[in-house]
Write a structure and sequence with these properties.
It comes from Secundilactobacillus folii. Residues 54-63, 113-124 have a biased composition (Basic and acidic residues). By secondary structure, the protein is mostly helical. It has one domain (2-170). The protein is built from two helices and no strands. The protein is rod-shaped, with a radius of gyration of 64 Å. The termini are far apart.
Length: 171
């Protein structure tokens, strides 16, 4: 039985060497034909993933910068809008004040002119009344006295009469 084992062992050793040599040859062929392309493919994929991660990080940073710029632009726009509104309010207030001042000046001027006109009309009315009274007085006096007074005498008489009426009217 031991001999059978020796013969089987010698056959197995030859076969084993053949199998080992075939295995080594197969491994070398795999290395040349399959391992290098697979390694290259894996390295290319790793590089692509790395580049994609870098690109995504760069895009995220750019997006953050753009968002920050938009926030600054929005803040500046709000500030500018507030400034414009404040300026418009100030200009409106100044125009309002100017218009009111001009209206008050115009109203005061109209009031003064109206008072002057009223005083002038009063003086004209008094003068007209004096003349009418003088003429009536002359006619009445002429009829009563049946003689003519001089115009200067009549005027003096009328003026004194009117002054007396004016003093009575004022009191």
């Amino acid at each position: 039985m031991f001999s059978h084992l020796v013969v089987a062992a010698s056959l197995d050793t030859g076969d084993m060497l053949f199998y080992a040599l075939c295995f080594i040859l197969l491994m070398w062929l795999l290395k040349v034909v399959a391992w290098k392309p697979v390694n290259k493919m894996m390295q290319d994929r790793a590089d692509k993933i790395s580049n994609d991660i870098d690109s995504a990080e760069q895009s995220r940073e750019e997006a953050a910068q753009l968002a920050q710029q938009r926030q600054k632009a929005l803040a500046n726009s709000r500030q500018e809008a507030t400034s414009i509104v404040d300026s418009a309010k100030k200009q409106g207030q100044q125009q309002r004040d100017g218009i009111l001042a001009q209206a008050q000046t115009d109203a005061q001027s109209l009031k003064e002119n109206a008072q002057k006109d009223i005083e002038q009309e009063r003086q004209d009315a008094l003068s007209s009344v004096r003349n009418d009274v003088a003429d009536l007085s002359i006619e009445i006096a002429s009829k009563i006295i049946q003689k003519e007074l001089s115009a200067d005498d009549q005027k003096a008489l009328i003026d004194s009469y009117i002054e007396g009426l004016g003093k009575q009217h004022e009191s």
